[in-house]
Amino acid sequence: MKTIIRAAQEVKKNAYVPYSHYKVGAAVETEDGHIVVGCNVESSSFGLTVCGERVALTSAIAQGYKSFTSIAIATDDGASPCGACRQVIWDLCGDIPIILIDKKGGVTTLQSRELLPHPFDDSSFHNN
Protein backbone atom coordinates (compact mmCIF):
# COMPACT_ATOMS: atom_id res chain seq x y z
CA MET A 1 0.00 0.00 0.00
CA LYS A 2 2.93 2.35 0.58
CA THR A 3 3.84 2.31 -3.12
CA ILE A 4 0.42 3.49 -4.32
CA ILE A 5 0.34 6.19 -1.62
CA ARG A 6 3.78 7.50 -2.61
CA ALA A 7 2.78 7.47 -6.29
CA ALA A 8 -0.32 9.59 -5.60
CA GLN A 9 1.67 12.03 -3.46
CA GLU A 10 4.39 12.37 -6.11
CA VAL A 11 2.10 12.94 -9.08
CA LYS A 12 0.14 15.56 -7.11
CA LYS A 13 3.14 17.84 -7.66
CA ASN A 14 2.42 17.78 -11.42
CA ALA A 15 -1.17 19.06 -11.14
CA TYR A 16 -1.99 21.99 -13.41
CA VAL A 17 -4.22 24.17 -11.22
CA PRO A 18 -3.80 27.87 -12.11
CA TYR A 19 -7.37 28.70 -11.06
CA SER A 20 -8.23 26.70 -7.94
CA HIS A 21 -4.68 26.03 -6.72
CA TYR A 22 -6.10 22.73 -5.40
CA LYS A 23 -3.76 19.91 -6.38
CA VAL A 24 -4.92 16.32 -6.64
CA GLY A 25 -2.76 13.30 -7.34
CA ALA A 26 -4.22 9.87 -7.96
CA ALA A 27 -2.78 6.41 -8.45
CA VAL A 28 -4.69 3.30 -9.44
CA GLU A 29 -3.35 -0.20 -8.91
CA THR A 30 -4.10 -2.79 -11.57
CA GLU A 31 -4.94 -6.40 -10.87
CA ASP A 32 -1.41 -7.42 -11.85
CA GLY A 33 0.24 -4.84 -9.56
CA HIS A 34 1.01 -2.00 -11.97
CA ILE A 35 0.42 1.53 -10.73
CA VAL A 36 -0.87 4.19 -13.13
CA VAL A 37 -0.97 7.83 -12.03
CA GLY A 38 -2.88 10.98 -12.91
CA CYS A 39 -3.33 14.51 -11.63
CA ASN A 40 -5.97 17.16 -12.08
CA VAL A 41 -5.68 19.49 -15.07
CA GLU A 42 -7.72 22.69 -15.09
CA SER A 43 -9.07 24.64 -18.03
CA SER A 44 -10.17 28.27 -18.20
CA SER A 45 -13.48 26.78 -19.33
CA PHE A 46 -14.05 25.19 -15.92
CA GLY A 47 -16.35 22.43 -17.17
CA LEU A 48 -13.46 21.04 -19.21
CA THR A 49 -11.28 20.53 -16.13
CA VAL A 50 -10.44 16.89 -15.45
CA CYS A 51 -9.95 15.36 -12.02
CA GLY A 52 -6.86 13.38 -11.08
CA GLU A 53 -8.88 10.23 -10.42
CA ARG A 54 -10.36 10.21 -13.90
CA VAL A 55 -6.99 11.02 -15.49
CA ALA A 56 -5.40 8.03 -13.72
CA LEU A 57 -8.23 5.67 -14.64
CA THR A 58 -8.53 6.75 -18.27
CA SER A 59 -4.75 6.54 -18.66
CA ALA A 60 -4.83 3.01 -17.26
CA ILE A 61 -7.62 2.06 -19.67
CA ALA A 62 -5.63 3.61 -22.57
CA GLN A 63 -2.67 1.44 -21.54
CA GLY A 64 -4.85 -1.66 -21.80
CA TYR A 65 -5.62 -2.30 -18.13
CA LYS A 66 -9.16 -3.35 -17.33
CA SER A 67 -9.16 -4.59 -13.72
CA PHE A 68 -8.25 -2.49 -10.68
CA THR A 69 -7.73 -3.35 -7.02
CA SER A 70 -7.46 0.09 -5.37
CA ILE A 71 -7.10 3.81 -5.96
CA ALA A 72 -5.19 6.34 -3.86
CA ILE A 73 -5.99 10.05 -3.90
CA ALA A 74 -3.65 12.68 -2.45
CA THR A 75 -4.87 16.19 -1.59
CA ASP A 76 -3.88 18.73 1.03
CA ASP A 77 -6.96 18.03 3.14
CA GLY A 78 -7.64 14.34 2.44
CA ALA A 79 -10.85 15.08 0.53
CA SER A 80 -12.92 12.36 -1.07
CA PRO A 81 -13.62 12.22 -4.82
CA CYS A 82 -16.27 14.41 -6.44
CA GLY A 83 -19.56 12.83 -7.51
CA ALA A 84 -18.49 12.38 -11.12
CA CYS A 85 -15.31 10.58 -10.05
CA ARG A 86 -17.25 8.38 -7.63
CA GLN A 87 -19.43 7.22 -10.52
CA VAL A 88 -16.48 6.63 -12.85
CA ILE A 89 -14.63 4.71 -10.13
CA TRP A 90 -17.72 2.55 -9.68
CA ASP A 91 -18.14 2.02 -13.43
CA LEU A 92 -14.51 1.05 -14.05
CA CYS A 93 -13.52 -0.54 -10.73
CA GLY A 94 -16.61 -1.65 -8.84
CA ASP A 95 -16.34 -1.85 -5.07
CA ILE A 96 -12.63 -1.24 -4.38
CA PRO A 97 -10.71 0.46 -1.56
CA ILE A 98 -10.32 4.21 -1.98
CA ILE A 99 -7.29 5.49 -0.06
CA LEU A 100 -7.46 9.18 0.86
CA ILE A 101 -4.20 10.91 1.83
CA ASP A 102 -3.72 14.37 3.32
CA LYS A 103 -0.60 16.55 3.13
CA LYS A 104 0.64 15.31 6.52
CA GLY A 105 0.48 11.70 5.33
CA GLY A 106 -2.73 10.86 7.18
CA VAL A 107 -4.59 8.01 5.50
CA THR A 108 -8.28 7.11 5.46
CA THR A 109 -9.50 4.07 3.52
CA LEU A 110 -13.10 3.64 2.40
CA GLN A 111 -14.81 1.30 -0.03
CA SER A 112 -16.25 2.84 -3.19
CA ARG A 113 -19.68 1.53 -2.17
CA GLU A 114 -19.46 3.71 0.96
CA LEU A 115 -18.91 6.81 -1.16
CA LEU A 116 -21.55 5.86 -3.73
CA PRO A 117 -24.13 3.73 -1.89
CA HIS A 118 -26.69 3.68 -4.72
CA PRO A 119 -24.63 3.74 -7.92
CA PHE A 120 -26.14 4.28 -11.31
CA ASP A 121 -25.35 1.19 -13.36
CA ASP A 122 -27.00 -1.42 -15.53
CA SER A 123 -28.48 -3.15 -12.49
CA SER A 124 -30.47 0.03 -11.79
CA PHE A 125 -32.69 -0.81 -14.76
CA HIS A 126 -33.47 -4.29 -13.47
CA ASN A 127 -34.54 -3.40 -9.93
CA ASN A 128 -38.30 -2.85 -9.68
State the main characteristics.
single chain; about 130 residues; alpha+beta; Cytidine Deaminase, domain 2; five-stranded mixed sheet; 4 helices; 5 strands
Summarize the structure.
The protein has helices at residues 2-12, 52-62, 83-93, 112-115; strands at 25-30, 35-39, 68-74, 97-101, 107-111.
Structure commentary:
- The protein has one domain: Cytidine Deaminase, domain 2.
- The protein is built from 4 helices and 5 strands; from the N terminus they run H-E-E-H-E-H-E-E-H.
- Strands 2-1-3-4-5 form a 5-stranded mixed sheet.
Write the topology of this structure:
Blueprint: H1 2-12, E1 25-30, E2 35-39, H2 52-62, E3 68-74, H3 83-93, E4 97-101, E5 107-111, H4 112-115
Parallel strand pairs: 3-4
Antiparallel strand pairs: 1-2, 1-3, 4-5
Distance between the termini: 40 Å
CATH homolog superfamily: Cytidine Deaminase, domain 2
Radius of gyration: 14 Å
- Our count of helices gives 4
Uncertain segments of ≥5 residues (pLDDT<50)? Answer: none
Determine and state the CATH class: Alpha Beta
Overall number of strands:
5
Q: Strand sequence of the main sheet, in spatial order? A: 2-1-3-4-5
- Mean pLDDT across all amino acids: 94
Oligomer: single chain
CATH architecture identity: 3-Layer(aba) Sandwich
User: What proportion strand?
Assistant: 15-25%
CATH topology: Cytidine Deaminase, domain 2
Helix content: 25-40%
Domain count, please report it: 1
Structural class: alpha+beta
- Give a quick account of the main beta sheet: strands, pairing sense, barrel closure: 5 strands, mixed
SSE run? HEEHEHEEH
Tertiary shape: globular
